[in-house]
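As a point of orientation, let us examine one representative protein, giving the amino acid sequence and backbone structure tokens.
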Amino acid sequence: MKACFFILAVNLVLSGAAHAAPVNMDYVHAVKTGGDTTVFFKGESAQAFRNPAANLTEEEIELHLKGDALFESNFSDDTSRSEYGLGPVYNNTNCAACHAKDGRGQLPVVPFGKEWVQLKQNESIFLRISIEDGLNHPKNAATNWGAPIPVPGFSDQLFHLGSMGARTDFPGAGQAQVWMKNEKSAFTYPDGEVVQLRKPVFKITGAYDEYFDSVTGQMRSRLYEKDVKTSPRMGTLMIGLGLLEAIKESDILALAARDLSDEGVYGKVNWVLDIKKLMSNDPYPVSMGRFGLKNNTPSVFHQSLGALRGDIGVTNYAFPQESIAGTPLFEQFKKNTNYPGKLETADEVGDGLVFYSQTLAIPSRRNVTEAEVIRGAGLFAQVNCTTCHQPSFVTGPHEIKAFSNQKIYPYTDMLLHDMGDGLADGRQDFDANGRQWKTRPLWGIGHTQTVNPRAGFLHDGRARTIEEAILWHGGEAEHSKGKFVNLPKADRTALIQFIRSL
């Protein structure tokens, strides 16, 4: 009788969702969030994200564990060491530094009494950079298939750390120094409750090409010009990537084709450069973007090996050129060091990292029989969170059989959405404009701050709680946020408890 009452309560809640997009309510009681890949936990666990998919073969588990060791291994800038490959400029020395225990990263702490803190070693955040010229570039080889335009003399990512020999003026520094402070604000609910919010703000100093302009009396650098756009990127959750890769393209396109104009929602695909297609000489190496905070990479292969070269500076068979190749800083680095000029990691290392990244398990849902969680699940649909956080998919075929034909509950539509001024970065990334972000999957979110107590939510880690993350939603999410903030506090709490159960 109790279960029947709970189901009835959910249905009554949903009866008020007049314009909600149709949604299958089986997610309310679903426990196996990752299908047969799911690993089970009774409560929140610090180890929730560190497990191989439950249905891998013994041989695949062995490959996963080898990849795990590689994921946590530090690379070195010493050419005499076997782990050589770091730099010449980079943001971290290993993968785990950005993805603590395979979870989300955290913002640096601003010291007491200080306004700014400098990004140094083992930070989970970095800045994307590019030139904005206001033009709509066609997708062809001349435009690198619509990719962001690198800043001349720099790249499309700002590397704040450098190997010895990169900067003789600032040993250990990269292309420039990056600083962060917190900008504070407050949100007041209609019922009078106030929530304090924060937003990280960044400044750049000490660029390697910096000089004093005697005419303007200012320090100048190509990096400081007005056409340069910067955008922070926080290390994200690693679980379930192989399953997201296995979602059928036709299902994502069908979600993009929905008419959700009543809610002001217009999901969009990002069509991006596909390094695998480029390597195979495909005449049009463009695919659907699935990964990255703006869906700017199409596969785990592209995302992982691109990060290996980008974030850590390790060239590999997919990305054989240094990120800063052709820049004055790189030419000076070659003169200052014994740069070997060859691929810096073996193919099996890259493949091991890709396999590991594909095969991390999804933790099971918890507390699915609790009355408040079940009520929160109904409210999740009533306020239209399910419009973008699409609860479920059935995966298609995948090269790793464990991910094929699985019923999964990632809570994402895999599409870009305009999230409003508050979250806008103003930076184009292939077809994603400066206000658009990918709908982040919500699976595993309840474990996030047990895995990493300082972890933050959203693209720059600004939100310290799930509630704060919701309150930053705008643009296409304004309709849904408006419903949420007008709920009674008890209902807001129930909805957040449901999200924590994921």
About this structure: The chain is about 25% helix and 15% strand. Residues 58-71 form the longest helix (14 residues). The mean pLDDT is 93.
